[in-house]
Amino acid sequence: MVQHLKIDFVSDVACPWCIIGLRGLQEALARTTDQVQAEIVFQPFELNPDMPAEGQDMAEHVAEKYGSTAEQSAANRAMIRSRAASVGFEFTLAEHGRVYNTFDAHRLLHWAGTQGRQQPLKLALFKANFTDGANVSDPDVLAAAAVSAGLDETAARDVLASGRYAAEVREAEQLWLSRGINSVPAIVINEKWLISGGQPADAFESALRDIAAELADAGRQA
Fold this sequence. Notes:
3 domains; alpha+beta; Glutaredoxin; 222 residues; 6 strands; four-stranded mixed beta sheet
């Protein structure tokens, strides 16, 4: 019997491990259609909520936030590029790229959810940030991502200019923080099970099958 799951994918488009984890989850869901049917809802989380509009040099940011040396940062970027390539995503993480504020991206994602286009927009924003090296706080970049995700450009620009969904995004961010989510990606299944980090598809598949089996057993015993 196929189990219907709601998957809250708590993440930030500034998080490289989030796209790696998302690709792993997507592959796992494709493998488990015999047991699982899932709805993914993308939930907001800001890694750098105080990031100014102009952003910050990536090397400077990593050194300040994590205390990493230039050599450590380079090794980490190489490892991320390798993991991303293994799931079919291209990273062009330059040493002197920039980290940008993502609040408006989350507002646009909230709106995209009302249009049934949240997942394609999420993927477009990851591409804009990590493949294209674009400024994901720039309204023009965000509007272009919306168009590539099949959304109306005029409506997207109206959302961005109006400040709509700011309260909803803040409320959702606080909800997940209150539930103990302080790093991403955090994958919450049926508001009960938590899978943390950019796991490979095999790990997600094993977890999904275990959860589906547990739900099936509970259904038989009810």
